[in-house]
Amino acid sequence: MVSSTAGLVLSCNAAIAWEAGKPLVIQTVEVAPPQAMEVRIKIKYTSLCHTDLYFWEAKGQTPLFPRIFGHEAAGVVESVGDGVEDLRVGDHVLPVFTGECGECAHCKSEESNMCDLLRINTDRGVMLSDGNSRFSIDGKPINHFLGTSTFSEYTVVHSGCLAKINPLAPLDKVCILSCGVSTGLGATLNVAKPKKGSSIAIFGLGAVGLAAAEGARIAGASRIIGVDFNPKRFEEAKKFGVNEFVNPKEHDKPVQQVLTEMTNGGVDRSVECTGNIDAMIAAFECVHDGWGVAVLVGVPNKDDVFMTKPVNLLNERTLKGTFFGNYKPRTDLPSVVDMYMDKKLEVEKFITHRVPFSDINKAFEYMLRGEGLRCIISMED
Ligand SMILES: NC(=O)c1ccc[n+]([C@@H]2O[C@H](COP(=O)([O-])OP(=O)(O)OC[C@H]3O[C@@H](n4cnc5c(N)ncnc54)[C@H](O)[C@@H]3O)[C@@H](O)[C@H]2O)c1
Ligand SMILES: [Zn+2]
Ligand SMILES: [Zn+2]
To answer: How many domains does one find in the chain?
Structure first.
């Protein structure tokens, strides 16, 4: 099947970020057809992840404007470029900020999802194949973001960054599995791997951190300690199995010391989901010597440096980091969607707000105020 718009330049609405920190402007963009190994998709629902907010604020990140942000979304294939064999018009897909070419050493390794060709690149604003953007306004190119740019009714994505999912899955729910929830869940289940009955500290109780907590609950951890500055998060976090709370602002000693004292020498595991360098260091220093494992998930500012005494490592603590919870997007993401379809994973409790595309700036306001977890932005109404 070929859609009637295949091969044509499409005009549609997109939310353009013209300047750092300024409200997005919804306006008409031209979206070029997909080139070799690319796919053009119609976005149905998208949501806002903190990574979008960081690059939009561009305080500690490389500024690149004008740009179309957005990477957590669900859509339907509109047309495919040459060489795309495994996706067809009408397939339901989740775009992912990191890809899977299937050919490189990373894709062939069971241990890695850091594809050589399609791994996350936050500074690139163009498509890989020809170094050009597929978006333009009056002939002037608009930058892509993370190879996904889902704050547009249509977008062009490399086929290696699209997971084909169960067509029965409701796209207004599973869109959040395209980044935040899978990232947190996988950080715990695939990387931290807490044992049954163990203790774990989760730094940052946004959607990513609470998905990490959900993973800890599924794995059978018994002490799930949530660490956040924002006390509004604590009530919500109880629904995700978090059963103890620490607000670093309420203590006059470093939070790593508070956690070490609470747990008789340190937590068995920790997962950092804040993007704050001090939280990253604390998350490492609060794990127990001999066996503790800390996992970094938050995206740091580009000049941040991780400082700790080497003896903390010598004392048999492990520090790891992960993108996308170590899931391979094309191979593994469909099974995370099936976990939701089989009712093993609850997605609804992460969705606290919904807005039409025309109100996309409200999603930014909620996140800036630390209100709620995920806001679904609907292209359908
Ligand atoms: N590695 C990956 O693959 C990946 C994927 C998605 C998101 N991320 C990153 O994960 C992080 C969380 O994303 P989110 O969408 O859940 O964000 P969010 O804004 O919803 O939540 C972050 C939480 O961290 C808390 N926080 C900030 N600094 C803190 C500190 N020093 N100590 C304790 N709590 C602190 C905030 O109060 C907030 O509740 C971000 O850094 C985001 O960029 C990484
Ligand atoms: Zn994200
Ligand atoms: Zn690869």
So the answer is: 2
